[in-house]
Amino acid sequence: MVVFALAVFVTMSSCSLGCSGNTNSTELKLWSVENQSMAMQLAAVFKEMERLRCEQTTLHQQQQQQQSALTQMHMTRDQKRRGHDEVGTNILTYGPNYDVKEKGEGEEEDEDSLDSFEGDSRRSEDPCFHYTALDQYWRATNTTNNNKMCDRNVNWKGWYRLYYKGQSLQMPERCVPVNKCGTHAPLWLAGPHPRRRDGIVTRRVCGHWNKNCCAFESTPINVKKCCGNYYVYQFTKPTSCYLAYCADINTLVCGRCRRDQSCVSRDKTNWMCKTNRWSPMQIHFFASFPGQLKGKVNRIKYSKVLVNVGRGFNRRTGVFRAPVHGVYQFFFSTQTTNASLNTELWLGVNGYWVAVSQTNVARPSSVGSLSTYMTFLRRGASVYVTHNCGHSWANSASSTITFGGSLLAQWREHNVNVNIRTKYP
């Protein structure tokens, strides 16, 4: 016979309204798990640890609310002494064991906050503190058992919490392949798990068989989320055999994945954390203006767009907006024919003129000019071309008034130094 015992000493200080001092009490709680496996013993230890942690959190919240309520009561008394008879906007309500909660006028009580004011009588009925640990390895979604199990033969009573080798997990919310979970038709939860403020909810349960994920619609079960981020289930007998409730092993695997990882599977049964491949975005654009430009044009609207990979260029506005952080290279060109006339095109970045394409023809001829510019841009930066003065010309075939650019190197979000500042003249 294996006997496992654990003694927990809990020292609590309790004070209610109207008490003259603090009363210290020490409680000794002792329990034993006989003829159980080490996994079951560990599950019992984890259960008690979580219960004590929740009670400690509840006690701390109660003390804070009591202090706030006492302060409010003293303020109310002071107002009465000053002769203020008007009713305030704050209402004091008393919960079990004279726990005090403050709420605004017309405000509804939040279910999460009410949990922190449960008395011992209410906690004794809470299934989060009274459940049976169900640690059977064959219930795992990645397990195939030759001896098919049937939960219709189990005398279900009360609430249960799923474990796998001493580690807490939950029912799957997706269809489980047949012949898994130690049975023919695995039972999975046909609906999302509840939030803590939802309390006890009823969920449908489906069994997968013959390529139908809900071939067997079993009796609905009750589910509740508990303090400590775990769930308890009120299982019922399935409608037929062979059906059994599943324990989603992916709860343990996918819960360990980092932000830069995804939980992936080839067979939708065995899952693993895989680092996401990072590939730089491809951004290229090239546009032209098939016409003449004279004098001042604030922004050239290049209507003929030949390349726009990454969709960073807008033909209606003539503005390119950087889709990602990175190093970009731009080019822009013009062509003029008038003698003794200065023609200027400026490249604008976020409202600053940073580069110029300039021509000055000394005699009647046609002269073109091409300028390039490279810079680091943050996502959302705007780039455009301004025709400042002179006379530029082009047609649909020549493409002499052009604007284009490419992303040379993309920077990841966490690699962008917040101290980088791009300076413009």
Please characterize this protein's 3D structure:
A five-stranded mixed sheet has the order 11-10-9-8-12, with no helix packed on it. A five-stranded antiparallel sheet has the order 17-15-26-20-23, with no helix packed on it. The termini are far apart. It folds into three domains: 3-77 and 92-104 and 113-123, no CATH class; 132-275, no CATH class; 284-415, Jelly Rolls, CATH 2.60.120.40. It has helices at residues 38-81, 111-115, 120-123, 250-253; strands at residues 3-14, 23-34, 90-94, 100-104, 132-135, 160-164, 167-168, 185-189, 201-209, 212-226, 230-234, 243-245, 261-265, 271-275, 284-288, 292-294, 304-309, 313-314, 319-321, 326-336, 342-349, 352-360, 367-377, 382-389, 391-393, 402-410. It is elongated. Residues 1-33, 78-118 and 418-425 have low confidence and may be disordered. It is mainly beta. The chain is built from four helices and 26 strands. A hairpin with a 3-residue loop joins β10 (212-226) and β11. Helix content is 13%, strand content 40%.
Average pLDDT metric: 75
SSE class: mainly beta
Q: List the quaternary state of the chains.
A: single chain
Strand content: 35-45%
Q: Which strands sit side by side, in order, in the main sheet?
A: 11-10-9-8-12
Largest sheet: 5 strands, mixed
Compute the number of strand runs.
26
pLDDT < 50 runs, ≥5 residues: 1-33, 78-118, 418-425
Number of helices: 4
Q: What is the rounded Rg?
A: 36 Å
Cα-to-Cα separation, first versus last residue: 85 Å
How many domains make up the 3D coordinates? Answer: 3
